[in-house]
Structures are given as structure tokens and as C-alpha cells.
Amino acid sequence: MAQPAYTASKHALVGLTKNAACELGEHGIRVNCVSPFGVATPMLVNAWRHGEDDQGGAPAPARVSAEEVEKAEEMAALFPASDESRYISGHNLVVDSGVTTSRNVIGL
């Protein structure tokens, strides 16, 4: 049940972002979220080391190129926090090197 719970929590965060943007927009507060994919966090690296894959496939490093594995420090969100993005609110910024638009994410 780990994958459905993880997916549900991601969708909940996007919904909360949109709702908060609607409620706080009248006060001039913008709300956005960032959805990274394939970031080498301790949780993901540990899963890769143990060969864990929720879909029963090969561990992710065998299916994802080194260029697609982002580091946590590369996930800075300076533009959405700047005045230049003052008209952007309620948005989910997907940071994934185009992976989720170019592949079947389940099978990678």
C-alpha cells in the first residue's frame, strides 16, 4: 500500500496548494509547490541500494540515466519566489527533466 499512499499524499499537496492560492490570493500571497522527480534523497538512494521497486522492476539506476538523477541542492525555487513571477500562483512546478512527459513513468 506504500505507492498509493505516496501518490495520494502528492495529489493532496497539489490540491492544498491550489486551495491556499485561492484563499490567500486576495491578501497578495502567492502559493506554489514544486514536485521533483528522481531526486537522490536518502530515502530514494536507500531504496535503490536495496533494489526495491514498487512495480517489481529493476532498480531505478538501471532504468534512469545519470543525467536524470537530480540532487536535492538543484531544486532551488528562486524564480517562483521572486517578484518576476508575481502572476504565478496555484501552480505545481514539475521538475523532472521531462521524464514524466516523455515516458511511461510506471515502467520508466
Describe this structure in words.
Pfam families: adh_short_C2. GO terms for molecular function: oxidoreductase activity. This is Sex determination protein tasselseed-2. It comes from Aegilops tauschii. This protein has 108 residues and is mainly alpha-helical. It has one domain: NAD(P)-binding Rossmann-like Domain (Rossmann fold). It is built from four helices and two strands; from the N terminus they run αβααβα. A two-stranded parallel sheet has the order 1-2. The longest helix is centred in the N-terminal third of the chain and has 23 residues, at 2-24. The model has no long low-confidence stretch (mean pLDDT 79).
Question: What name does the CATH topology carry?
Answer: Rossmann fold
By CATH's scheme, which homologous superfamily applies? NAD(P)-binding Rossmann-like Domain
DSSP helix fraction: 25-40%
Strand order of the largest sheet: 1-2
Second-tier CATH architecture = 3-Layer(aba) Sandwich
Following the backbone from N to C, one meets helices and strands in this order, namely HEHHEH
State the separation between the terminal residues, measured CA to CA: 20 Å
- What summary fits the major beta sheet? 2 strands, parallel
CATH C-level: Alpha Beta
Number of helices: 4
Tell me what portion of residues adopts beta-strand conformation. 5-15%
Estimated structural class = mainly alpha
Tertiary shape: globular
